[in-house]
Design goal:
By secondary structure, the protein is of the alpha/beta class. It is about 20% helix and about 25% strand. It has two domains: about 1-270, Spore Coat Polysaccharide Biosynthesis Protein SpsA, Chain A, CATH 3.90.550; about 295-400, UDP N-Acetylglucosamine Acyltransferase, domain 1. It contains nine helices and 31 strands. About 45% of the residues are buried.
Length: about 400
């Protein structure tokens, strides 16, 4: 079960018309493609995707790109929008989102249920985690990783004994418990859970009947279970795919504009921490049938070029310079434009003599000739969204342009 119903409000205007899992990432993907690809690559081919907030573009993407699984072989990606199946309310929390689909879950007759968030970037072999769960005769297994104490306030923090059993769980504490022998380091939950199916159903019903519960896995379900049942922690490094020795396993929460920009910029490095070119663990997505990217003009003052950049199909760079940037599909950059350190989402047109530096352009933007963005933050802040780290987010609405396409 992939929980993909959240807005991701910290992404500001980027999620005004789409849920966070539908936000484009990495030049041609959407965020939800990463947990979905992890499932398929792990051999998990019965997948439910729980949606709620402004899900149209997400549902369209899943329909177009993830309908290749065959129902005849009992494999599927099933869409589970909020539909008030149990009571007259929308999903009230992560646990309630699963509870309201309990009748559908029971119909699958599975032995285990894997519950994932739909809004993080990482590669993980869930099969390793399922094997760990079975070997430890666990009721619940929680994927975990180390973070700094400063970062821990955004996570559920766990204390683990020498047998990997969770003995304490606190959701987003102000003062987290540090790992013994590792000052400044904290063990946190990744929001990835393996439950024994019957046990999960029992606990969801119990939590639903509790009027004091907020019906959330991190706030309510897990703290209750830790004191009463066999809850174990599975270290992410044991199932992370494509990790390099001496480098922390790759996992990114792209929940802010700054984090989103930084994670995309990592992709432009010579050897990025996340390998998108890995044939053994590919990231699947929906791909339009587009012509190859095209670079035209080779005059000294008018050369179509891209350096340290990712350029997708359908793009035309016409006598312009692109450096350390990602261009998603169907981006047209006109002559004498200069683009640096920017993330350009699909179907964008950039006019002549435009300058972009540290900019995120939303889908469908048309940048008029001569405009400069990312050069003067004071002027940019009058029209656009400028972050604390100086990243400028631009949407069609900010430019006074009405958008009629699905985001």
């Amino acid at each position: 079960m992939i929980l993909a119903g959240g807005r991701g409000s910290r992404l500001k205007d980027l999620t005004d018309w789409r849920a966070k899992p539908a936000v484009p990432f990495g030049g041609k993907f959407r965020i939800i493609d990463f947990p979905l690809s992890n499932c398929v690559n792990s051999g998990i081919r019965r997948i439910g995707v729980v949606t709620q907030y402004k899900a149209h573009s997400l549902l369209q993407h899943l329909h177009r790109g993830w309908s290749f699984l065959r129902g005849e072989f009992n494999e599927f990606v099933e869409l589970l929008p909020a539909q008030q199946r149990v009571q007259e309310s929308w999903y009230k929390g992560t646990a309630d989102a699963v509870f309201q689909n309990l009748d559908i879950l029971r119909g699958y007759k599975s032995e285990y249920v894997l519950i994932l968030g739909g809004d993080h970037i990482y590669k993980q072999d869930y099969g390793e985690m399922l094997a760990f769960h079975s070997a430890h005769a666990a009721d619940l297994t929680v994927a975990c990783m180390e973070v700094s104490a400063e970062e821990a306030s955004a996570f559920g923090v766990m204390t683990i004994d020498e047998h990997q059993r969770v003995v304490k769980f606190t959701e987003k504490p102000d003062v987290p418990d540090e790992i013994p022998g590792k000052p400044g380091r904290v063990m946190v939950s990744m929001g990835i859970y393996v439950f024994n199916s019957a046990f999960l159903y029992e606990q969801l019903i119990r939590d639903s009947d509790d009027s004091h519960s907020s019906h959330d896995f991190g706030k309510d379900i897990i703290p209750y279970l830790v004191e009463r049942y066999r809850v174990f922690a599975h270290p992410f490094e044991a199932s992370c795919v494509g990790g390099r020795e001496g480098v922390e396993p790759y996992w990114r929460d792209v929940g802010t504009i700054d984090a989103y920009w930084e994670a995309n910029m990592e992709m432009t490095k010579i050897t990025p921490y996340l390998n998108l070119y890995d044939e053994e663990w590919p990231i699947w997505t929906y791909q339009e049938q587009l012509p190859p990217a095209k670079f035209v003009f080779d005059d000294e003052s008018r050369r179509g070029m891209a350096v340290d950049s990712l350029v997708s199909g359908g793009c035309i760079i016409s006598g312009a310079a692109v450096r350390r940037s990602l261009l998603f599909s169907n981006v047209h950059v006109h002559s004498y434009a200069d683009i640096e350190d920017s993330v350009i989402l699909p179907n964008v047109e950039i006019g002549r003599y435009v300058t972009l530096k540290k900019v995120v352009l939303d889908k469908g933007c048309i940048i008029p000739e001569g405009m400069a963005i990312g050069v003067d933050p004071v002027e940019d802040a009058k029209r656009f969204c400028v972050t604390e780290k100086g990243i400028t987010l631009v949407t069609p609405e900010m430019l006074g342009q009405r958008i009629h396409q699905v985001r």
